[in-house]
Amino acid sequence: MPLRRLFALTSVAFLVVLAISPAKNALRPYRGLQRKFAALGAARAHSAQQAREYAARPVAIHQIWLAELDQRVDRCTTCHLGVADPVMKGAPPPFALHPWTPHAPGQIDRFGCTSCHEGQGPATSEGQAHGTARDAGPPLLPVTYVEGGCGRCHATQVVREAPVLSRGRAVMDRYGCFACHGARGHEGFRSEAPPLSSEPVKTGAGWLRRWLTKPRDVDPNSTMPDFQLSAAEIDELAHYVLGQDVPEDLARRVRAAAEEPAGDVANGKKLFAEARCISCHTVEGKGQGSAPELSKVATAANRGWLLAYVRDPHAFNPRTPMPQYHFSDVESRDVVAYMEDEFRDFDAPADILEPLHVNRTLAEAGEKTFHRYGCPSCHGARGARSVEKFGPDLDGIGDKKAAFLDFGRRTDLPRTLTAWLTAKVDAPRSFAKALRMPSYGLNADDSQAVVTALLSLGGQPVPEAYRVRPASQPAPIPSGRVGELVDRYRCLSCHQIGDRGGDISTAPLTFEGSKVQRDWLVDYLVLSYSIRPILTERMPIFHMPREEAVQLADAIETLFVDPRVPEDPFQGRPASDADLVEGERLYTTLGCRGCHILGQKGGYYGPPLTDTGGRLKPGWTYTWLKGPQRWRADVRCPDYGLTDRDALRLTAYLATLHAPAVTAKGAR
Amino acid sequence: MAILTGCARPAPVKPAAAKTAPPALSYEIRLGRATYQHYCQTCHGETGAGDGFNAFNLDPHPRDLSDPKFQKAKTDADLADAIQRGGAGVGLSSLMPPWGRTLTREQVDQVVLYLRSMEKHP
Q1: Which of A149, A377, A499, B111 meets the CB 3.0–4.6 Å disulfide criterion with A390?
Q2: What is the three-state SS of B68-116?
Q3: Do A227 and A333 fall within a single domain?
Q4: What pTM does this model have?
């Protein structure tokens, strides 16, 4: 063939090949979409000028470049053109305005799209961006689980505008997922499960077998999951647990307590009510629920153990949230007598607490079973200080590619990460034989919430500029004598001090010294009463000796102080009569009685103010009135925007209020 | 030519059906509900009927917010105004506090959305 002709043919072929790329580019779907958007915008525009602007928009790739967020590039807005455009409210997808959320559409330039929604930011075709095309990267988070995206940056336990995520994190905390599964930030997690060292002197095989069959059938408050054990495994475990050597100190306590005479049931009933056990425990389902259900406790544990435990719970379980009451020996006997009388399962067989004649072979098999199922992860191992995490680490589980997950027998599931996680949480052993994760019996909402929380565990740590960590607030708890008292009475089980403690009482104690009068506090510690009628939980009466109350109150007044609260808000100038009258008038016109009781009348929401002069310090009252949300953002008392003068007048009026003196115990 | 246009178009993977349906209430209404339950429910009640735990200590009783006549008579701006300025600010009882300094503008708008969803339908 002549060279000239060859050259002509190859040139034409070369030109044709060269034309392929521009042709493909001209046919890209986003170009058509952008033209459609321009037409839609022109139709929806508010003015002719705006319509012209829409029509004149060039067809181009749009991107959001987030330099501080790992140099991310999100090109989603190439198709999702109306995402931040108010004109596009209610437009058909993909042009619709993004619904209101804390970071979109308002701050889309700072957060982009993939930081919440996942997917492939740099892609410009739907299949690649959404992760539906073959070999595309990890897909978009389904909208149901979108709050998992919030959790990537928001590392706090509660994220106010992400209720599903917050719920998931709370469920994971309650059921102790991090006891077996490690994760960044949760290395120090310890389960609240009790040590099992005193089981042999506490209970019998009958009860233990019932418990191991299905814990929540025995105690609905329990967070122990169902291990779906066979009868043989239950038998082995019973022999192992009840065959352990009990520490001599505990065995002696239980023996001595068992030999004491029975107490007085009627007095025990009164003491039980005063002790406010249902502020944590439940009886027949009534109560707070973080501690075990008590209505059948005398069938779970024998009398000697119950008595020894009530006297000193910390000897049996150093990490229990239960306080040590200061009952006398007679009083504790009475309380246990009441429990023995009332709180038993009257249908249980008589030998349910019979001790077991332990078979050594079965006990050895039981020890293997005990370790095989990871029981030490929650219950602790004898002698070992810490146990290696039993389950796989959860770091990066939110970024796991579906192709790397083992679906095993579950061929019914769609091949996505979310489907796998949901199935794992709902039916952990359904994937293959001989899996060991127990089942938690979560309902659909909790299970969805947990999957959302899991999806927030990303592989890469988030850059500092974007991370939201819990604010650290030191807790001024001293060591020494006062620290021992705080530990013995377990104040932190119900009260927040700094960033530690529980939230059963809802009002933090961090600055209590600036808040309440010291003398009032001593009386209150000795004999507590209901401060906020709306709460069903009540502070227990510990039978605290007065000297201990004095030590605590003095420490609180000295250390639990907010320097922003003035010692004397009146600055040496006492209030005049006119100020007091004005203060009382303010009380009426602001409507405080809607929530607060004064004397005989008022609302049930906030604390009664009848004794404000005796209970609160005026400096604190004044600071509160100037901004009740200062110490805790979710306080319900509204901020009235009072001027300094009005706040002072109201403070002066409230400081004159004193309750009549209490003459008899419980007269209030 | 077919060879030169590159690889065949990849077969799309069907997106998985979500196991749990998205919640019935939108995100903003759920946030509004959370705010309502925290601040308003004790007086105005679980259904907005003005029968909350605290309602019977109050004279006048809290308004029945689910009443269709009331809902029709007030615009969203009226409702937001009453919430932010309180009862005293709109010429009614001071027992309804002003929330304008305690709640953000977004929170107030979300509560109004939730209030609209509480309207009793005959």
Answers
A1: A377
A2: HHHHHHCCHHHHHHHHHHHHHHCCCCCCCCCCCCCCCHHHHHHHHHHHH
A3: yes
A4: 0.89
Residue A12 inside a domain? The answer is no
- Residue A592 has a pLDDT of 94
Q: Are residues A583 and A555 both part of a single domain?
A: no
Pair A114, A227 in one domain: no
Q: Which chain B residues touch A601 with a CB distance below 8 Å?
A: 57
Q: Which of A145, A585, A596, A605 to mutate to test the interface with B (most CBs of B within 10 A)?
A: A605
Domain boundaries, chain B: 27-38+65-117
pLDDT per residue as tens digits for the range A473-532: 888 899 999 999 999 999 999 999 998 998 888 889 999 999 999 999 999 999 998 888
Cα(B117)–Cα(B120) distance, integer angstroms: 9
Q: Is there a contact between B102 and A638 if contact means CB atoms under 8 Å apart? A: yes
Q: Do A115 and A59 lie in a common domain?
A: yes
Q: Are residues A85 and A111 in the same domain?
A: yes
Beta partners for A616?
Answer: A516
User: Given pLDDT bands bounded at 50, 70 and 90, which one contains residue A1?
Assistant: low
Does A485 lie in the same domain as A526?
Answer: yes
How far is A424 from chain B, CA to nearest CA, in Å?
13
When pLDDT is averaged across residues A381-410 and rounded to a whole number, the result is 84
Name the residue in chain B with its Cα closest to that of A597: B57
- A295 pLDDT higher than 80: yes
Q: Please say whether the beta carbons of A95 and A80 come within 8 A.
A: yes
Residues written for chain B = 122
Q: Is residue A270 part of a domain?
A: yes
Q: Which helix (H) or strand (E) holds A446?
A: helix A444-455
Q: Give A591's contacts in chain B (Cβ within 8 Å).
A: 86-88, 93-97
Domain that holds residue A408: 163-175+393-466
CATH of residue A550's domain is 1.10.760.10
Q: Which of A60-69, A110-119, A383-392, A554-563 bottoms out in mean pLDDT, i.e. has the lowest? A: A383-392
At B5 the pLDDT is: 44
The larger pLDDT score, comparing residue A135 to residue A611, is at A611
Q: What is the chain A residue with the closest CA to B21?
A: A144
The two beta strands, A286-287 and A282-283, are antiparallel
Number of structural domains in chain A: 5
Question: Nearest CB to B13: which of A132, A143, A419?
Answer: A132
* Burial of A383: CB neighbours in 10 Å, binned 0-12, 13-18, 19+: exposed
- ipTM comes to 0.86
Under the banding of pLDDT at 50, 70 and 90, the label for residue A575 is: confident
For residue A311, what pLDDT is reported? 97
Of A418, A601, A641, the CB nearest to B101: A641
Q: Residues with Cβ < 8 Å from A23, sequence gap 6 or more?
A: none
Contact A163 B34 (CB under 8 A): yes
Rounded CA-CA distance A585/A326 in Å is 46
Could you tell me if residue A145 is inside a domain? no
What pLDDT, in 10s, does the model give residues B62-101?
989 999 999 999 999 999 999 999 999 999 999 999 999 9
